[in-house]
Specification:
The protein is α/β, with parallel strands linked by helices. It has 2 domains: 86 residues, Glucose Oxidase, domain 1; 268 residues, Aldolase class I (TIM Barrel), CATH 3.20.20.70. It contains 8 helices and 17 strands. Strands 1-8-7-3-4-5-6-2 form an 8-stranded mixed beta sheet. A 7-stranded parallel beta sheet has the order 9-10-11-12-13-14-15, covered by helices on one side. It binds iron/sulfur cluster. Iron/sulfur cluster binds next to loops.
Length: 378
């Protein structure tokens, strides 16, 4: 799915954020006009600018324009985009999707073996914050769920709390799902400040990959990460934060999976949800594939044991990113259609499967690397 495009910019002096519309009647000070063909006369309204497919553009006033854009087809009425000084047009929010996510920063203090979005050491925090600050008030108030991811969002420092405060004010009815490695919350004041924001719709998804510190630290490639994350989880629980533990399934995490499940029940009983997640074949994973790959079919006994154990203790458990045909039927009730629409795909053989509509399928990038045991259910 196309989420970015580029054209030739005119007059754009700083990043602009606005909704798109093809209807000049709907233009307001927060919107861009999308133009497929030629435009005879500029609307007399106040609006942000024009995004056009035209090859040539005659500048009439000092309007903001991006022209010669290869396609605008992917943009729906009301989608929200950012337009950069270089003519890059990034889709920030899609009105027809339940899977919208704000990018907080691409910086991270961990460097996980299987990171799907490897960290970049560039100072993007202020730029992204300014874009998100403009974006949040434009998001429809009936938005059901919004993700926040990185990098590691807490590296924003004070801006992290400013962002969450703004979200609570602007989107009080939206479920917010924040992905963080949780390490920063080992410092009590960070958890306390989050507690002060007091957003009951905020859930933090935090990875714990092993019950043994050396294994976790190796997977996330950061010393002391295990102790920081566990302390962070406890601090967050003391300030009544809603928590989810996320476990990515691969060669390093599978051998101690049942022990990890028992550790979670014993030491983190306050978490609201535990998600066991199939491996994404993107980012660092292809480079570390020898260290990571196990066919999901091969670990289904370990996964089943861990899931059944936690569910048996009354904990809310899910299996993400795993096709139904890999799992024993008694575990289908834990499987969720977890893959965001823009990165979700199926194999050609899936077209004959009777469970196609119930199955979450694969990440688009996992079409290249998937279980050998995928086969239609009849
Ligand atoms: S064959 Fe395809 S649709 Fe059917 S369960 Fe397997 S992955 Fe899902």
């Amino acid at each position: 799915m196309l989420l970015r495009t580029k054209g030739k910019p005119i007059n754009i002096k700083s990043a602009l954020v606005g909704k798109v519309t093809r209807n000049p009647e709907r233009l307001d000070e927060n919107s861009f006009l999308l133009v497929e063909g030629s435009i005879s006369e500029l609307p007399s309204k106040n609006f942000i600018g024009i995004l056009s497919r035209q090859d040539e553009y005659e500048v009439i006033n000092s309007e903001n324009i991006v022209f010669k854009i290869p396609t605008l087809e992917h943009l729906m009425e009301g989608d929200i985009v950012s337009v950069g000084i270089d003519g890059n047009i990034n889709t920030l929010y899609r009105v027809n999707s339940f899977h919208n996510t704000l990018l907080a920063t691409e910086r991270c203090n961990s460097n996980c073996l299987m990171c799907s979005q490897p960290p970049k050491d560039k100072n993007d925090i202020n730029n992204l914050y300014e874009i998100n600050k403009k974006l949040i008030p434009l998001i429809p108030k009936d938005c059901i769920e919004l993700g926040i991811s990185g990098g590691e969002p807490t590296l924003m420092g004070d801006l992290f709390f400013d962002l969450l405060s703004q979200i609570k004010t602007e989107l009080p009815d939206t479920e917010i799902h924040l992905l963080t490695n949780g390490r920063t919350f080992a410092w009590d004041y960070m958890a306390e400040r989050l507690g002060e924001i007091d957003n009951k719709r905020l859930m933090l998804g935090i990875p714990v990959y092993s019950d043994y510190y050396q294994v976790h630290d190796y997977i996330v490639q950061a010393e002391n990460a295990f102790y920081q994350t566990i302390l962070g989880l406890h601090n967050l629980a003391r300030y009544n934060q809603r928590l989810e533990v996320r476990i990515v399934l691969h060669k390093q995490s599978i051998p101690r999976l049942t022990r990890l499940a028992k550790y979670i029940y014993k030491n983190l009983p306050f978490v609201e949800h535990v998600a066991f997640m199939g491996l994404e074949y993107i980012g660092y994973t292809p480079h570390n594939i020898e260290k990571l790959w196990i066919d999901p079919y091969e670990y289904r006994d370990e996964l089943g044991e861990a899931v059944e154990y936690l569910a048996g203790q009354g904990m809310h458990v899910s299996i993400y990113n795993t096709p139904l045909c890999i799992l024993p039927e008694n575990q289908w009730k834990f499987a969720r259609k977890s893959i965001s629409d823009w990165k979700n795909d199926y194999l050609p053989i899936c077209s004959t499967c009777t469970k196609l509509n119930d199955c979450g399928g694969l990440f688009t990038w996992n079409l290249k690397k998937h279980s050998e045991h995928i086969k239609p259910i009849h």
